[in-house]
Amino acid sequence: MLLAIETSSLVSSVALLHEGTLRAELTIQARLTHSEQLMPHIADMLEKAAVPKQHIDAVAVSIGPGSFTGLRIGLATAKGLAFAWKVPIIGIETPTSLAWNFAGVSDRICVFIDAQKGNVYASVYQWDRMQLQIIEDICVVPRTEFLQHLKEEGNPVVFCGDGALLGRSAIEEGTPLFRMATPTMMIPRAGSLALAADTRLKAGDVDDCMTLTPAYKRRSEAEVLWEKRHGASLCL
After folding, report:
1. What's the topology of domain 95-186?
2. From the CB of residue 166, how many other CB atoms can be counted at a distance below 10 Å?
3. Which residues lie across from 24 on neighbouring strands?
4. Average pLDDT value for the chain
5. Domain 2-94+188-217 belongs to what topology?
6. What is the pLDDT of residue 233?
7. Burial class of residue 40, CB neighbours in 10 A (0-12, 13-18, 19+)
8. Do 2-94+188-217 and 95-186 have matching folds?
């Protein structure tokens, strides 16, 4: 039984995957902090699914990019549970998890995660049967610039992620080849995270609980401000 934890955005999502079957999933956008709701959600899901913690064989967690605070809470929780239960941990980058929402879809999948100030963490994927191909790896770029790049390429693209929601107008007006994902496929979900992690778990590809860290992809505003004011990088 694989427990998956997704806290990279305002969405709080947890799921249980067992032998290819999604046993349970709880996904909520309540704008409560993850510190308030994550552990109660896990406990509630395990109880309702009648799954004792002793049946959890691995823990998967979204490692970003995304909300710095959300990622820290999710990863700290996943590490604590994996360490306490003595089970493997698997970290999955959030865009990969989002791409798994579209397993089997023929269009290219563009994941936009909000990076603030008009920028996004942008990446592009495409499914080849049931193999996920990385067309363009994660980069931080102005949303308008990346949309123009995709428009010039001329491929059908479906957009997802909170950065896509913020740029809905530009996407929908860009070209008939662009389309927004449906609400159920727009957001990161622990069920898709579990599927992505399960492929790694079956291959014996797991992470070290002691060294797994968030994939921030850029420095926080606090670090940038510290460097501006003090002329040196902040040691964390």
Report:
1. Nucleotidyltransferase; domain 5 (3.30.420)
2. 16
3. 16
4. 92
5. Nucleotidyltransferase; domain 5 (3.30.420)
6. 53
7. exposed
8. yes
CB 7 within 8 A of CB 41: no
CA distances to 35, 42, 78, 201 from 39, rounded to whole Å, are 8, 5, 10, 23
Cβ of 223: how many Cβ atoms within 10 Å?
Answer: 15
Structure confidence at residue 29 (pLDDT): 86
Taking the CA atoms of 217, 223, 228 and 231 in sequence, report the sign of the dihedral they define: negative
Could you tell me which residues come within 8 angstroms of residue 152 by beta carbon, excluding any fewer than 6 positions away? none
Name residue, tokens 């704008």.
31
* Residue boundaries of the structural domains of the chain: 2-94+188-217, 95-186
With contact defined as beta carbons under 8 Å apart, do 62 and 94 qualify? yes
Pick the more confident residue, 204 or 226: 204
At residue 232, the pLDDT reads 55
